[in-house]
Specification:
Layout (H helix, E strand, L loop, with lengths): L10 E4 L4 H12 L8 E5 L6 H6 L6 E5 L16 E4 L6 H6 L1 H18 L6 E7 L10 E2 L10 H20 L2 E7 L1 E3 L10 H10 L4 E4 L5 E6 H9 L9 E5 L4 E3 H14 L6 E4 L10 E2 L2 H5 L8 H17 L11
Parallel strand pairs: 1-2, 1-4, 2-3, 4-5, 5-7, 6-14, 7-11, 8-10, 9-13
Antiparallel strand pairs: 10-12
Helix pairs in contact: 1-7, 4-5, 6-8, 6-10, 8-10
The protein binds nicotinamide-adenine-dinucleotide.
C-alpha cells in the first residue's frame, strides 16, 4: 500500500533506504548536472534502514516513500519519471536460494513492474546487475561478452533482469544501462549481507581475530561505495545506451592481503590484530579477474585504491561505533 502521492518528480531511485540507494541520492543532490531534477525514493524497508533515510541530506527536492516495487498502483507516483535507478532487490544470495519464489517476485517481477509503470515517460533505466551472472569462471578474466552462467538463483535473476532490460530497450527504445558490480564496500550495508571488508574491520575494532576461510589466496575485485555512485552517474550518456559494463575497480586482491591491510591500519591506530585460518567453505577456491576496460572508456577511473578505501571505511566504522551504532559493536561470529 503506497502511503503518499507526489507529482512531477523526475528521478526515481528504488531501494532508496538500502546501502547504495542512500549514498546515490546524496551524490545526485550534490551534482549540478541533476540540479533541476526532483528525486523520488521508494523502499519497503525489507532491509532498508531509517538511518540510511536519515543519512540522506535534507533537501526539498527529495521525497521518500514507503512502497513495494511490485505494487501495480505504483504508477500513481511515477508520472513524469525520466531517469530510473532501479536498485530495489533482495540481494542476499542465501536468502534467494532459500526463498526462490519471494526472490523471483521482487527481483524479476518487481523489475518488470517498474519498467511497465514508468514506460510512458522514462528515458534512462539504470540496472545494477552483478558479477554473479558469470558463475564459476575460475582462472579467467570476466568480460562482458561472455554468456551468463550463474551458480545461484540471485545470479540467475540478475541475468534474467538484464534480458528484460534489453527487451524494453529493443522494443520501446528505453536507454537502458546495466552495470555488473563486483563487491561493493563501505558503511551502510545490511549486517547479514555485509562484505568481507567491513567484517574484517569490525573484527579488528572489536578486538577479535580476523578469520580467513581457506588459504586466503582467492582474489576478488572490490569497489568503494563512493566510486560506485560515480559509476551510476555515467549511465546518463549516449555511449552507455543499451550497454552492459563490468563495474569494479579493475584490481583484484587476495583475502589474505585484505586482512593484512586491515591489520596494518588497526596497528597504526594502536590496536593489535591476529589473523587466523580455518577450513575453506567451498571445496574449490574461485578466483577471477574483472576486465573493466569498457567502463574506463566511459570515463571511469576509481578514486579509491583498496588501501585508501579500506582506511576510509575503517574510520567511518570507528566513528559509527563511537556514536553508539550497536550493529557494529556486536560480535559477528
Ligand atoms: N552491494 C553489493 O555489493 C552489490 C553488488 C552487485 C549488485 N548489487 C545490486 O545493487 C542493488 C543495490 O544494492 P544494495 O547493496 O544497496 O542492496 P540493499 O539490500 O542494501 O538495498 C536494497 C533495498 O531494496 C529494498 N527492497 C527490497 N524489496 C523491496 C520491495 N519489494 N519494494 C521496495 N523496496 C524493496 C530493501 O529494503 C533495501 O533497502 C541491488 O539490486 C543489488 O542486487 C549490489
Amino acid at each position: 500500500m503506497l502511503m503518499c502521492l507526489y507529482g512531477d518528480w523526475m528521478i526515481l531511485v528504488t531501494g532508496a533506504a538500502g546501502y547504495v540507494g542512500g549514498h546515490l541520492i546524496n551524490r545526485l543532490l550534490e551534482d549540478e548536472k541533476f540540479a533541476d531534477y526532483g528525486i523520488i525514493g521508494i523502499d519497503n524497508f525489507l532491509v532498508g534502514k531509517e538511518e540510511n533515510f536519515n543519512l540522506i541530506k535534507k533537501d526539498r527536492r527529495v521525497k521518500l516513500v514507503y512502497g513495494d516495487i511490485c505494487d501495480k498502483d505504483i504508477d500513481r507516483l511515477l508520472r513524469d519519471v525520466e531517469i530510473v535507478y532501479h536498485l530495489a532487490a533482495i540481494s542476499g544470495v542465501v536468502f534467494c536460494n532459500n526463498n526462490p519464489e519471494e526472490a523471483l517476485r521482487v527481483n524479476f517481477w518487481g523489475t518488470m513492474n517498474i519498467l511497465e509503470q514508468t514506460l510512458d515517460s522514462v528515458e534512462y533505466f539504470v540496472y545494477p546487475s552483478s558479477a554473479a551472472v558469470y558463475g564459476n569462471i575460475s582462472g579467467s578474466v570476466a568480460r562482458e561478452e561472455m554468456p551468463p552462467n550463474p551458480l545461484n538463483t540471485y545470479g540467475a535473476m540478475k541475468a534474467s533482469c538484464e534480458a528484460l532490460c534489453r527487451a524494453y530497450h529493443n522494443s520501446h527504445g528505453i536507454k537502458t544501462t546495466i552495470f555488473r558490480f563486483t563487491n561493493i564496500y563501505g558503511v551502510g550495508t545490511y549486517p547479514k549481507w555485509r562484505t568481507v571488508v567491513v567484517n574484517f574491520i569490525q573484527k579488528a575494532l572489536n578486538n577479535k581475530p580476523i578469520t580467513i576461510h581457506g588459504s586466503g589466496r582467492q582474489k576478488r575485485d572490490f569497489i568503494h561505495i563512493d566510486d560506485v555512485v560515480e559509476i551510476y552517474k555515467l549511465a546518463i550518456n549516449p555511449k552507455a545506451n543499451g550497454e552492459v559494463f563490468n563495474a569494479g575497480s579493475g584490481y583484484s586482491i587476495s583475502v589474505k592481503e585484505l586482512a593484512e591491510i586491515v591489520k596494518r591500519i588497526a596497528e597504526k591506530q594502536g590496536t593489535g590484530v591476529n589473523i587466523s585460518f580455518v577450513d575453506a567453505r567451498e571445496a574449490k577456491e574461485r578466483e577471477f579477474s574483472y576486465d573493466v576496460s569498457k567502463l574506463r572508456s566511459l570515463g571511469f577511473s576509481p578514486k579509491f585504491s583498496i588501501e585508501r578505501g579500506v582506511e576510509n571505511t575503517f574510520i567511518a566504522v570507528q566513528n559509527l561505533m563511537k556514536k553508539g551504532f550497536e550493529e557494529y559493536q556486536k560480535d559477528i561470529g
